[in-house]
């Protein structure tokens, strides 16, 4: 029997010469797995380059319709160069499969500074090199008079002033380890620095001994408004006290009502009482819970789903409208932020202008800073010359109020001396009877 030719005369690919596979052992021994190995290797190559098998990817991942092209991408692509080596191409191509990370790596050695290395060698009594690469004897190290390391003064240089006196802080027993809290100065300006009020304010024109008519009338009206406001406050306080004291005089009409409590007399309603009795005699039946059917539950679920779909549709519509009006919203936000910044600056400027005149009328702490008193004379009290002029005002009070308004003294209220509760006891002594 003639053997089958391995190569065709017409140029067909060569046939693989394979031994007989009649028995099971021959089948396992002489099996040809070259085609399967090639197919598996091609799949591995695809996974290395792309990251996964091309057959498992969708059409959208493999193909794209490009109608314009990217000029920037075209410029960034590497140009063909004959001088580029094959080894460089192989190294530059990276695999999409991540590298194996299970390999144990040796920990990096920590770098020691020269000072730390010298200290460790000194502790271990190991020879170490000094100046000019000379080996130093560890037993004779530091025996000379020259300083070996930086002194404490050199290390602490520039941290404190040597000419400043040292203040020793005395702390009570048990609080030696507790540091006092250092209060930092705030970044905002102190009101005292903003106030520009004069120490001695000039009196108004209407307070003169011979004032103009219009200025005198305006000052009288201002004093009248101040006094009227004080009287209204006193009247409101008195009426509030009367309301509080009124229930204390009432005596309870019934036995169970305590003193000071008022109870309105209710109107008797016979019809209501009869109905109440009837209701009390009758047995109120509770409403039974009825179980819903499947049709009712399905109808309710359908209605709920429709409502949810309508709500999602309205939300999607609002989002689309918001996307279309993004530019207008951005400009509106910028305008709002600009308006808020301008309003804030205007408020700060108004506060500064108000503080520049003083703290009169503002509450600081428990008390309010008093305003300057309006000293004015009526038309009958005015004098036409300086001889008949009557002194008015109080210089001490004016200066003290000025100190409070300028923020130099905290506001206070006048404290009157307390009256003595016990009467003085009079003793009659007898030395006046003993005379010679």
Write structural notes for this entry.
The structure is a single chain. This protein has 436 residues and is mainly alpha-helical. It contains 13 helices and 4 strands. It has helices at residues 24-29, 34-50, 59-62, 71-76, 86-92, 114-123, 152-155, 191-194, 213-245, 270-281, 294-324, 326-356, 395-405; strands spanning 128-129, 135-136, 363-364, 367-368. The protein is extended, with a radius of gyration of 52 Å. 3% of the residues are buried. Mean pLDDT is 78; it is low at 1-12 and 271-279.
On the 0 to 100 scale, the average pLDDT is: 78
Which word captures the global form? extended
Biggest sheet, open or closed, and with what strands and sense? 2 strands, antiparallel
Number of strands: 4
Give the structural class. Answer: mainly alpha
Biggest sheet strand order reads 1-2
Residue runs with pLDDT of under 50 for 5 or more positions: 1-12, 271-279
Give me the Rg, rounded. 52 Å
Termini gap = 185 Å
The H-and-E topology, N to C, reads as HHHHHHEEHHHHHHEEH
How much of the residues is beta strand, in percent?
under 5%
Estimate the helix proportion, in percent. 40-55%
Helical stretch tally = 13
